[in-house]
Specification:
Elements lengths: L1 H26 L5 H27 L5 H29 L10 H24 L1
Helix pairs in contact: 1-2, 2-3, 3-4
Family: Belongs to the UPF0382 family.
Keywords: Membrane, Transmembrane, Transmembrane helix
Membrane topology: Multi-pass membrane protein
Length: 128
């Protein structure tokens, strides 16, 4: 599980830098201010959680069920949250917004909240 956290953390971080540069340069001219802000939100959350995944691999063995679920929540939540925002903003740019992605974003956000809750549970178990 540590390998998965490190590999996906590094991959998500790499993609966040690429997508951030893409948004700042290529999309800036064709996006509205609102679309650019949404895209940047996806990039920012992706980078935050890439760093979290890498740090989890360094600080936990990730061998208990709650630790494994924490990693799964961050992996899936980041993918669903950020990539649905990318899909919504890119499809909206052409006027054909993929509305089916709308409900996926909050589901990804819920998984991220669950991941943070499981991290809080880990800390509480260590210190209390």
């Amino acid at each position: 599980m540590v390998l998965i956290a490190h590999v996906f953390g590094a991959l998500y971080g790499l993609l966040a830098v690429v997508f951030g540069a893409f948004g700042a340069h290529a999309l800036k001219k064709s996006f509205t201010e609102e679309q650019l802000k949404g895209f940047e939100t996806g990039v920012r959350y992706q980078m935050y959680h890439a760093i979290v995944l890498v740090m989890l691999g360094f600080n936990f063995n990730l061998n208990t069920p709650s630790q494994e679920w924490m990693v799964y929540c961050f992996l899936a939540g980041t993918f669903l949250f950020s990539f649905s925002i990318y899909g919504l903003t890119l499809s909206g740019r052409k006027g054909k917004k993929w509305k089916f992605l709308g409900p996926i974003t909050p589901l990804g956000g819920l998984l991220l909240v669950m991941g943070w809750g499981l991290l809080l549970y880990q800390f509480a178990g260590q210190y209390f």
